[in-house]
What does this fold into?
Amino acid sequence: MENTGSASGATADVGFPEAVVRILAVDEDPLSLITLTRTLQGCGYHVLLPVAAISRPDDPSHMYLSMRAVTAKASPEEALREVRQKPEGSFDLVITVARTEGIGIDGFGLLEHLRNRLPVILVGNEPEPVETMMRGYLGGAFEFLTKPLGEKELRYIWKHVSRWRLNAATGSDPRHRRSAGAVNGSGEGSSRGVRQQKQRCRTTRKTQFNSLPNLHALFVEAAEVLQGTEGM
It folds into this structure.
């Protein structure tokens, strides 16, 4: 169904079960950032405009835009500043490029700061080595995607928000129970789990992963290692 831009049109097109999904999109490449925001628009989201640019802030359509909106930032550094300046709960999901060439933190650094506050999706400019993807998943990324991103990859990213909220409500995700020190990446148990998994990666560095199930199995094993360190 074609997205007409109305609330009903977007809901029918994407099938959002969540009333509010606000995305923070991050990429230092202007063309990639524009492409990402436009693709998200095609999935039922809308680029969030400053209030001053909206002629009628009390218009119901304005409220809808703020409920399923995309805020675009040109670097992970800017994105982190935006999250810190906004009230808690202003964003529900972060999509950030993993590697950057600019000054400041990259996508991995942004993940380290936000992994206990928001679900984070990392994006590679090209297919990344297994070790790089492992770094992202062990760091708490919900997904590690590769450009170009189309509607097929982005249409159902709201599921990560649903999963995050469910885990927060039930306490089933260790990230919702970690201390402030662990939020900043200084948790001893988490670091020990990463060191153990890195050692395993060294012994399998030459292994070729030709199928998704094999790669997924390794990620599951890594997650089990991390969870096993929670009680240490």
Observations:
- The beta strands are 23-26, 46-47, 69-73, 93-97, 120-124, 143-146.
- The radius of gyration is 18 Å.
- The domain at 17-178 is CATH 3.40.50.2300 (Rossmann fold).
- Confidence is low (pLDDT under 50) at residues 1-15, 50-57, 59-65, 177-213.
